[in-house]
Each structure stands twice: as structure tokens, then as C-alpha cells.
Amino acid sequence: MLLQDRPLLQWLKEVGVYLNELLRLEGRGAYTAEICSCGQKDAFAIYRCEDCSDVRLYCRTCIVSSHRAHPVHRIKRWRDGHFSPVTLKSLGLRVQLGHQPGESCICPQQAWGDDFVLMDIFGIHEVGVDFCGCEDALPSHVQLLRARWFPATSVNPKTAATFRLLESFHQLSIQAKVSAFEYYSSLARRTDNTGTRTPKDRYPSFLTITREWRHLKLMKRGGRGNDPDGLAGTREGSCAVECPACPLPGKNLPDGWQDAPESKSWLYCLFLAMDANFRLRRKNVSSDDVDPDLNKGSAYIVEEQAYKAHLTAFDKLPMTTSNHCNNHDAVNLATLKGAVHLASTGVVSVDCARHEMKRPCSTGDLQKGERSVNSDYVLRSSLHQNAPNKVKVSYDVACIYSKNFLARFAKYGWDEPTQEFTWAIPKFHINAHREQCLADYNLRYLRGCGCSDCEGVERLWSRSNGAAAVTKEMGPGSRRDYVDDIFGGQNWNKVTSLPSRLLNAIKKAVPERNAQAASFRQYDKALPASSTAVWKEVVEAWEADSSNPNPFFIKRPSITQAAIKKQMAAEDAAALKAGTASVLHEKCSASGIVISGIELEEHQRRLKVDASALGQHATDIQRAKILERQNLLRRRIDSWVQVQQLYMPGVAAQRARFLAANEDASLAYNMPLLLPSAATTLSDRPLLDLEWRLRYAQAFDALGDLRGHLEVRAHLYKFKDRFARGQRANTRSHTIIKTVDAKIDGDAERYRAAYGALKALAVPLVKTDWQSRLQPLLQADIRHVTEAEDGESEGRRKMSWIWKATASPDPPDAPATVQHTLRVEWCKSRARAMRWSEEVELLQEEMRRTMAYHQWAAAHWSSLIDQTFVEQPDYREGANAYARRHAAMRESMRAYCEKSWRYVKMWVCLGTNDDDTPIPDLESLAPSEEGADADASSANDHAEAP
After folding, report:
1. 777, 748 contact by CB (below 8 A)
2. What pTM, to 2 d.p., does this model score?
3. Collapsing DSSP states into helix, strand and coil, what is residue 119?
4. In what residue span(s) does the CxC2-like cysteine cluster KDZ transposase-associated domain sit (predicted)?
5. What is the pLDDT of residue 87?
């Protein structure tokens, strides 16, 4: 092993050298001369700067002179054999504002009280500041701004922060989610870490300055300073960072896109993803009057006043939202009461689904869970932000939310949306839905969806949730502005990564497209042309109009114990009527004895669990109740056994042997019932077949109950994480979850009993196909659809088989079943080939749109040159320089995209025909050094971008 591959091991050999050098710097080193190099009399060299690279010692005059442009550097004085801190202000440094460096003012004015505090990345400093008092002097706060010091107030400023400090905190608050308090505390600790020279408290001023800085940066990047309409002309969402790859009419779509034929119009569809986040909550502190927001809907969060007016008007309006699907949090939490201590229980957002970016004016606060009154407003607001005429909306409960969508718009008094909607459920969430939803809202089947998974909204939340601990303590306005800032930073990072992300996506999509197309052609040729022609008509009819029958769905009557019992009762009645029934008991038929036996078995399981839960400290009343239940169950079993002997002769002897060999078998819950599955040699085939039918249904009943209880438990855990605070609430939640866990264990035992019986019955009945639908239930299988197995990573997560188990009442060799299965598989194979082909086309279109958007943005910034400050040449030059810099940046980003994707068209064309043309290696298309430098230059040019 080479040491250069393990630098830490190499460094361990040099620890002593490093430590010695650090100690040497505590002294004067080689600069021990008493007189300063300036040569002046009594110029003792006792001062050294900690922040300059020069480690020499200077006299007081020289150190002050060399730091007129660096008033925040930390100075130390050599005295009594060690260095101790001293301020430049105490050494006589005065900073003259309002004049060129080196010029003096004939009428300097000290800062009020001469206790001016300047915050910088080096610490919190007291600085001697003189404002210009000349006749034509600028206001004090403007003088500070021209020195790149941001004042805390416009009137008699006594506190400021350097621009580099604000830029540093701005980036850290977005990337690392560092709070203002933690950052300010680190500055205070850097200024003095002993507690003996605590700097003056300027934390409130720091909060004010950072909020103003965020807002100014947003306005500046949004071009408000270059627009003739100025700040007053700021429109909703106009300062947000847009997704350049999404279809934006008037910016990146080709001329005549509205009239594109159906074969191409799907390329101009906007993909949206809706979801709620209950982590980004806010406590009920402050108010909008005390803490107003500065952005006012100009970025990502909707304008608050209009949003509140909507909620006030329709908050109590009854909305018909029936949960006809499985147990979903978005529906169950819809009417949940908000916590008293929370002003906002979270946020709901509408995002760009394909590129994982936040859309302008598409996020709003929640008050009482995830209700449609909130989601509707946010979705409508997002649709007003330059949306095309076709929209695909993904939502984890789209099957429920979409039902009364237009009816709710009518109740609000809104105009019906002009867009054509397609509703879908994200690919991972859809596994928790019923079969009908799996067919109707599946992105894998919907035309024009490509290979979008629409789960990006969840990934976006994972990045912003780091700020939850900070935002929950904020006032309403501070929180909205900060969340706007975080979303802007996320979006800009996504924009700069689009060249590599889209390139990587198409590198994966092209080979998959070719493979799936070849697989479908092979499968299609293997099937009768007459059948595939009919299937093609059916699937194309459904794709054109979703109200037509869905070819991906096979309607199967559900198998339940209740249905089988009803069927058996009808068979008994028919046999009695026909006179063919074998009556051995006047009140109980053969089916009745098996049904009753399975019911007794369930009673035994429940009683055994309850008896085991008594423990050593159970009361007499609790023990008495268990005994009463045992006695009652024993009497029922004795009565059932007497009838059983008529249908299963010889079972009494087998039971007697079992009771003699097991001491605990005399307990009611341990008594052997010896149903046909446990005594196959003593049962005739009709009796075995009766139990098979009941056990088969019981297995699917148990799996259904198990899935339902797992959904409930997952819901309870999410509810606990989102809402339960304090010992009382958490204890109550744990108690409820424990009760559900017991039900899950009961479902699992019931299934295992049914599976064991089926396994025993399968041999004499010669059943071979049943294990394709039912499997042994391991403890690792008992998990929610969103849970991974222990040790399984997110990328390798597999869904437990219990969520895929479906019952089919028809035998697998039934002709209709075979045809339906072949049809569905043919449709799925065709859908896979089409989705990957669409993905390749979509990616190419997104690449084109990205370059077109950068070109439009460059032209837009160029159009803002010479639009403002006509009578103020210095301001005009600055505004024009900013516009030109942004135009150049966008043009360089467009050129970089073009260079990164230069071989994509050739790569896409190859593989569509059977030829031997060599395929270029797209791995070589990684950004070159020249391209990387250009990209880095663009990023640096836009370092102040989100």
C-alpha cells in the first residue's frame, strides 16, 4: 500500500513537526528585533496581525497605516513574553467614509456615541468610524454601503456587517441550514473565547441585516433593479429560479407548438408533482403585523393575504372526499385538528416532477393536515405560472383528489382550468393502492409519461428538511423568506447540474429503449396476430379516452371466507333440494363442521394470546375472565367433537393419543381439533376439498387484514412523528401502536395456520399452482410497502411479496384467464417499449428546451441594458454591467450544454436499425477540462446566485 494513498498515515509521522510549528507561531519567531523596520525613533516592533500572511512585527504607526483598508483584522501585541489581543481602534485607527482612500474630510462626524460595531467573518469588532460631513455628503447608510458595509438601520447607524460576512452566512444558511443564532454565536466565540472580553450584543441587528440581504439578493437576481418598472412592478413568482427544461411558453417552446399534431404535442406537456411536508412546521409565535414577509409572493411561497382570504372563505366549506381506496395519510389527516401550539402544521407544494425543482408561487402553509382547500389553491397558483395547455399531475392520492377536482373549483368560484389534465400516482406510492388504481393511475401505462417516477418531490423534501429545526422557531415572515431562499438555492443547484444529469439519463435510456423495443417485437411475433390486433385497438382506445375499459386491469371477484361460506351454503341447499345430500347430522352439514372447526381454531388462538398476556401480577378478576372463556370454549369444542366423529370416523382415537402424549393439551386453547388437514388419512376427498376452499380464502383474508393493519401502523407512526409532542402524547401513541402490533401478529398467525393447512391438503388433492400466489410468511416479510428489509439500501429495496399477492378464483388453465393474462402482459410489454422510447424523445426535447431557455434568458438580460438610471451614469454603468454579466453567464451555460450534448443525436440514432455502426462511448463525454473551467467560471460569475 502506497502512503500517498493514505495521507493520514503519512501525516501521523509528522505530527510532532506540525505541533512544533504551531507552538513556534505563538512566539515572535525570527522577528525578535525591538525596533520596527521603519526606523523611526521609539518605534517598537510589538504588533502583529493574525489575519495577514505577513508574520513580522511592526510598530503602532506602521500597523495602523497598513490596516486602513482592513479595519477588521485582528491585531496582537507582544508584552510580558506573550501575545495578547488589542483593537485597531484603541491603536488610533479611524475609518473615514465618504471619501477616497487616503483622503481626509474637512468635517468628519463620528458615529453616534463612537461605539460603532462592525461584524465580519473575522469576528465582531469595535471600529472607529467617521462619516463625511461635507455639504454634499451622502446619507450615512449610503456611505456605509459604498464601503461594502451593510448598515443595521438607515438612521444614525451604529452597527453594520461586511458584504463578505453576509455572503458567507447566506451560503451556509442555504447549503448547511446554519441558523443565524449559531452563526452569530460562532462569531462571538471567535472574537473572544474566554468570556473576559464579551463583544457587544448585536444579534438582533444581525437578524435584521440578514433578512434584508436575502430580500435584496432576490430582487437583484430577479432583475428588479434593471427593470424600468422597478420594485413596484414585481409580479408573483417573477423572482423564482425557473426550470429551464420544463415547457415554458414564450421562453423555450418552438413556434407553433400549440398546433403540433398528437404524435408530438405530448412533448410539450408539463409534469407536476404535489405533496405535503409536515416537517416544515412553525410554532405559534409572532404575527404578520410584527414579522411581515418581504418577498410577498415574488418567489416560491404564495402571497399570504390572498391565501388567507381563500382559507377564511372556504375553510369550513364541506368537501366530499371519500376514501374509496386504501388507508392513505393524505385523506385521513385531512380533517385532523391543528395543534394549538402550531401556527402551521407543514407545507403543501407543487413541484416540477421530472427535474425536481420548486415552481414559482406553488407552496403554501397547512393548518389542519393535508386538505384539498389548501392543495387546490396552491395547484391553481402554480398553473397560473406560465403553464402549457397539457399538464400531468402526480399526487400520492390522485385517485381520490382528482374525483371532485373541477367541482371544487366551481365551489370556490374559480374559472375552470384551461389545461388538459392527466392524473397519476408516483411509482413507489402506487404500490400501496388497490388494483384498479394500479391500472388507472400508473405512470408505466399512461401515454407520454416516459420513465418519470414523479418521486422527486420526496427527494426535494429530504434536502429542505434540514432547515425544519430553524424555521419552526421563526416568525411568519422570516420563515417564508427563508424557505424561499432555500428553494432558490436548491433550484439553482439543479439548473447548474442539468448538463450532466440529462446526459447521464439519456446514456441509460437509449440502451434500455433498444432492449425493450426488441423484447416487445419478439413477444408480439410469438402471439396470434388476430389477438394482438384486437388488443392494440383496445389499448389505443383507452389511451385516447381513459373512460374506456382499461386493458391493464383484470377484474377478479375477491375471494373471502364469507363468500366461500355463502357458496357452500348454497351448494348444501341445492343438494338437499335434489336429494343427493349425505346427511349425518340433522343440524350440521359437512361444510358446517369444517367452518365451525376453523372458527374454533381462531378462538383458540385469541384465547392463548390473552392468557399468555396475563403475567405474574394479573388480578383475580382478570384470571377469572380467562377461566370463564376457557370453560365456554371447552364446552363448544366438546359439542363440535361429537358431530365431527360422524364425518371423520377414527378421529377420536387419534385425539386420545395426542391428549395422552401432551399434558397441556387438556387446556381449551391447546386441544387438538384435528380438522381434515391435520388428519388427511381419516377424511374423504369432499371433506378435504371443503377445507381447501375455506383455507385458501382464509389465507387471502389474513393477508388483506395484515396489509390493512400495516397501513394503519405506518399511518400511526407518521402521525406520531408529525404531531405527537410530549410524554403524554407519545405514551398514548405507543399504546395504540402496540395494540395494532398485536393485531398484526394475529393476522400473521392466522395466515401461517392457513398456509400450513393448505400445504398439508395440497398433497392428497394434487394442488400444484397455489404456491405461485401464496408463500411462507417470514418475519422479514411483515413490513410496510415503503419499508426496506434489514440491511437493504434504498437503491436495492424490494417490496415484500405480501403486497403483490392477489387471489384468482379461476384455475390457471381456464381459457378466459389465459387470454386476459396474455393481453395484460402484451400491453405491459408494449408500454415498457413505448415509455423508454418516449423517455429518449423527452430527454432530447428537454435538452433543446434547456439551451433555448438559456438563450432566451441571455436575450432577456441584454434587453435590460440602458433601461434604468438614465440621468445617473455611475448607477447606469453598474446596472448595465450586472445585466451584461448575467447575459454572458447564460450564454456560456448554453454553450456548455451544447458542448456536453454534442454527440447525443448520433447516439440516439444508433441502435434503431440493425447495422454495425460503432457506437461512441458516452463516458468520454464527461465535461472536459476546458468545459469544466468554463462551467466553473460561470458558477463563479454567478456566485451570488441561489
Report:
1. yes
2. 0.79
3. strand
4. 88-195
5. 95
Residue 907 forms part of a structural domain = no
* Range(s) of the domain holding residue 143: 94-221
C-alpha cell at 115: 461605539
* Domain end position, chosen among 789, 816, 842: 789
**What helix, strand, coil percent values describe the chain, rounded to 5?**
55, 10, 40
Q: Are 799 and 707 in contact (CB under 8 A)?
A: no
> Phi, psi (5° rounding) for residue 321?
-130, 85
Report the phi/psi class of residue 810: left, alpha or beta, with left for phi > 0 and alpha for psi in -120 to 50: beta
Q: Give me the helices (H) in 648-726, please.
A: 651-661, 685-723
Residues 180, 288 within the same domain: no
For residue 151, report the phi and psi dihedrals to the nearest 5 degrees. Answer: -75, 150
| Residue 151 DSSP SS3 | strand
Q: Would you state the pLDDT for residue 914?
A: 45
Q: Are strands 128-132 and 159-162 parallel, antiparallel or unpaired?
A: unpaired
- The verdict on 81 and 130 lying in the same domain is no
Neighbouring C-beta atoms of residue 927, cutoff 10 Å: 17
Q: Write down the pLDDT at residue 571.
A: 62
Helix ranges (H only) for 545-650 are 561-578, 590-612, 620-647
In angstroms, rounded to a whole number, what is the distance separating the alpha carbons of residues 402 and 546? 14
pLDDT in tens, 18-36: 999 999 999 999 999 889 9
Please tell me the distance from the alpha carbon of residue 422 to that of residue 401, in angstroms, as a whole number. 12
pLDDT score at 786? 66
Mark which of 789, 804, 834 sits at the end of a domain.
789
Which residues sit opposite 826 in a β-bridge? none
Q: Nine-digit cell at 111?
A: 458615529
Q: Which residues of the chain have pLDDT under 70?
A: 1-4, 318-339, 556-565, 567-568, 571-587, 718-726, 729, 785-786, 788-798, 806-818, 911-946
Q: Rounded to a whole number, what is the distance in angstroms from the first to the last CA of the chain?
A: 43
Domain count, the chain: 4
Give yes or no: residues 149 and 210 share one domain.
yes
Q: How far apart are CA 884 and CA 861, in angstroms?
A: 7
Decide: 499 and 896 in contact? Cβ < 8 Å.
yes
Res 818: pLDDT? 64
Instruction: Tell me the longest C-alpha to C-alpha distance in the chain.
Output: 133
Which of 348, 378, 242, 228 is closest to 299 using CA atoms?
242
CA atoms of 264 and 246, how far apart (whole Å)? 16
Same domain for 204 and 251: no
Using DSSP's 3-state secondary structure scheme, residue 282 falls into strand
Surface-to-core class of residue 269, CB atoms within 10 Å of its CB (0-12 exposed, 13-18 middle, 19+ buried) = buried
For 322-362, the three-class secondary structure string (H helix, E strand, C coil) is: CCCCCCCHHHHCCCCCCCCCEEECEEEEEEECCCCEEEEEE
Q: Do 398 and 423 meet the contact criterion of CB atoms below 8 Å apart?
A: yes
- Residue 302 is given by DSSP the state P
Residues 6+ apart with CB under 8 A from 554: 820, 821, 824
Which amino acid would we find at residue 137? A
Instruction: Report the pLDDT value the prediction gives residue 769, as an integer from 0 to 100.
Output: 79
Same domain, 82 and 98: no
Domain membership flag for residue 874 = no
According to the model, what pLDDT value does residue 726 have?
63
Tell me whether residue 564 is exposed, middle or buried, using C-beta atoms within 10 angstroms of its C-beta: 0 to 12, 13 to 18, 19 or more. Answer: buried
Backbone angles phi, psi at 86, to 5 degrees: -150, 150
- Letter string b/e over residues 602-632, b meaning 16 or more CB atoms within 10 A of that residue's CB: ebbeebeeebeeeeeeeeeeeeeebeebeee
- Tell me: the pLDDT tens digits for 176-191? 999 999 999 999 999 9
d(Cα 80, Cα 194) in Å, to the nearest integer?
19
Looking at the structure, do residues 79 and 145 belong to the same domain, yes or no?
Answer: no
- Contacts (Cβ under 8 Å, ≥6 apart) of 474: 282, 285, 286, 291, 482
